[in-house]
Design goal:
Length: 189
Amino acid sequence: MVVSDESADADDRWRSRVRASYDDVRVPLWRAIVAWSGSVDVADEAVAEAFAQLIRRGDEVRDPDAWVWRAAFRLAAGDLQRRRRASGRTVDLDRAGAVVGRVDRLPDDALDLVAALAQLSDQQRRCVALVDVAGHTAPTAAALLGTSAATVRVQLMRARRRLRALLAEPADGSDPSTPSDPADPEVTR
């Protein structure tokens, strides 16, 4: 009976670790995957499946938080690839069950950001999602991505520069540096 009690205690400790990981990681992970993939549905499925796999693996996983981050991004990438193959073309955010039209789950200004993020490279999107959205440091993000901290910092610099340019463009396509109000005294000088 001692073995059963020890086994039950180990199971309870594992469940507590998974629950703590879920409470700490779920929301920032979901946000990071939405930012990276542009899809609420992909994020929902990837996060849920990553935690389900974590529970199935049991205590063989040494660091549940790091494992879930890696697993969720891999699952999301696989889901996006399946959607692309099924559609026969690149994923259109409107058709892939993406954020557009799902404003009940994201703030309005997030839609512009998600659209701009979709124009970055995959690696830049992952770096932005991990560091700027989820709050990881460059070294932690590098460990999750399997690259160096210097690479993460370079990708962040390039991504932020590109995002600033994309988000500064007015929707009507006019030049943001040219004032549009002819009554403005600065324009007439």
